[in-house]
Amino acid sequence: MNNSILVEPLVQIETEHGKVLRGIKKSDSLYRGFGELYFSQLNPNSINAWKKHDEMISNLIVVSGIVKFVFFNEIKNLFTCETLSVENYKRITVPPGLWFGFQNLSKNISVIANMANIEHRSEEVKRKKINEIDFDWSKKI
């Protein structure tokens, strides 16, 4: 896996009782093992930035709300932005070594699922305050 994010459309299956939102399968080409699955709630207008994993591969899916993700490759000095929701249902696979943060664009709480290839370990993640990476969170993408 290189040091760029990969964005893949995901399957939504309509049933008589609602939708089934597929996330990731063991047979997917980007599957790199299972460490843990966790959900992050993000309050309206809230921004959670910045973090970078040394080992973890994150598979990010928005299951409720609208979330803008911003990724920063400090080697290339390059930002990449993606906005996900159930209406724009995709999975972002984030390799180790990229800084990222996310912003809730919804008027309600947004929920992000992360299916990671390893269990979370605090010594494996680096963090910076929001103003330590120069990005204008108010700009439209």
Number of strands: 12
The CATH class: Mainly Beta
Structural class: mainly beta
Number of spatially distinct domains: 1
- Provide the CATH topology: Jelly Rolls
Count of discrete alpha- or pi-helical segments spanning 4 or more residues:
0
Low-confidence stretches: none
| C-alpha Rg (nearest Å) | 15 Å
Strand content: over 45%
Tell me which CATH architecture applies here.
Answer: Sandwich
CATH H level, superfamily name: Jelly Rolls
Helix content: under 10%
Q: Based on Cα principal axes, name the global outline.
A: globular
Task: Give the strand order, joined by hyphens, for the main sheet.
Answer: 1-9-6-11-4
The run of helices and strands is EEEEEEEEEEEE
State the separation between the terminal residues, measured CA to CA: 26 Å
Description:
Strands 1-9-6-11-4 form a five-stranded antiparallel sheet, with no helix packed on it. Helix content is 0%, strand content 50%. Strand 7 and strand 8 (78-85) form a beta hairpin. The chain has a single domain (6-128), classed as Jelly Rolls (Sandwich), CATH 2.60.120. The chain has strands at residues 6-9, 12-15, 18-21, 36-42, 47-53, 58-64, 66-73, 78-85, 90-94, 99-104, 110-116, 125-127. The radius of gyration is 15 Å and the shape is globular. With 141 residues, it is mainly beta. The two termini are 26 Å apart.
